[in-house]
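User: Could you check the structure of this?
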Amino acid sequence: MSLDQLESRLRQDLATLNLPPANWVPPRPDGALDVLVLGGGMLGLSASFALTRLGITHHRVLEAAPAGREGPWVTYARMQTLRSPKHLVGPAQDIPSLTFRAWYTAQHGEPGWQALGKIPRAMWQDYLVWLRRVLALPVTNGVTATRIRRGRDGLVAVETEGAGVVLARRLVLATGRDGLGGPRLPDWVPANPGPRIRHSRDAVDFTALAGQRVAVVGASASAVDNAATALEHGAAEVHLLVRRAALPVLNRFKSMVHAGFTHGLPGLDDAARLEVLKAAFEGAVAPPRESLQRLARHPGFRLRLETPVLSVAEDADGVTLRLPQERMRVAMLILGTGFAIDLSLRPELAELAPRVKLWSDVLQPPGGLGEFALYPYLGPGFEFQQRDGGALPWIERVHAFAIGAIASLGLISGDIPGVGDGARRLAEAIARSLFVEDAAHHLAAVRDYADPELLGDEIPSAALVPAHV
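Assistant: Sure, the predicted structure tokens are below.
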């Protein structure tokens, strides 16, 4: 089967499933969107498809990046392959002809699929570009949200660069790993670091590091991938600086990829839910074995355990690091320190952040919440909850379809395995809330329904028996 034939089969599959259905949400006289999705990466596309499947077609997706560069896959992600196994359905949402497997096999045949190990990172981006095209999802690139605020008549207003002010009844934040916060920076990092100190999400000119010494902080997957990338571009030495006495060896989140966690975790009470998630994070998450092997192939690799950075000094030519036993001079310091969930770090969320309920507002367990203290405490449809108890209902019309939902809803809005389930849950919640909001309209539509089932000519007159004989 060729790719053209697959696309033909996909059209037939969608038609067989009566997709997409007709739009059922009554139009507004002011032209406001029913839903605006911010972010056109994997999560935003998944949300758009799920909304379309439920007949919520008056929606729009806005993406800041140029077409083809949405998300991390061909920008700051530096692993060679995805972590997830190749067979996961992900954003295809149970449509066989929309899966990565169908797309790949149409181009490389079944033997090619059997020979494929894990999915090459850039190939996943190619697949997402195809998915967007064949589903004709309403994505506009080159638009950046600058301010989210209350609009008129209960609407959410989004001020943008590139599309003016966009009004919507519901807003979905599908803005990636740092969309509800930003890079996690150690306290020894200067307030405004220069070009010699980079976070793993930043653009890095690796070719300029050829023959140079580089330091990478952290034992995360991103830290290991950045270290390997530097060596592959000719860096003479790369020192991986790890505070721990040993590398973490477990990824407990792999034990959570099944329907029980997907559907059951939100059913636990708050304390039990947090206990599960804190257990998953205990001891940190191991970098993938393949990533560490990739790094270890290079003779210039140096692993330095029990080596916290105490301070740094950056100048035009490099960075001097103060370590417990020495000072180290490097051409560049890369921080593989992950992302923090902290709404106050996002300028566009400035009006939302102080009013959004956080986990620290509802739970104070012995020993504290750790990093979960700043995670938003979301409703069942990813919606923000109001900290002050109900004065600003527009806040609950904003849905955080991002990794920061993990504390409230589990692993359904960050990585590939759960994104389809998360998108369905999001779209169903939005459909429910829009219907309830428009209940009077739908009641009137039932009462005004005038398409007769019977036309009066179904029964011949000879078959009629008078009521009184």
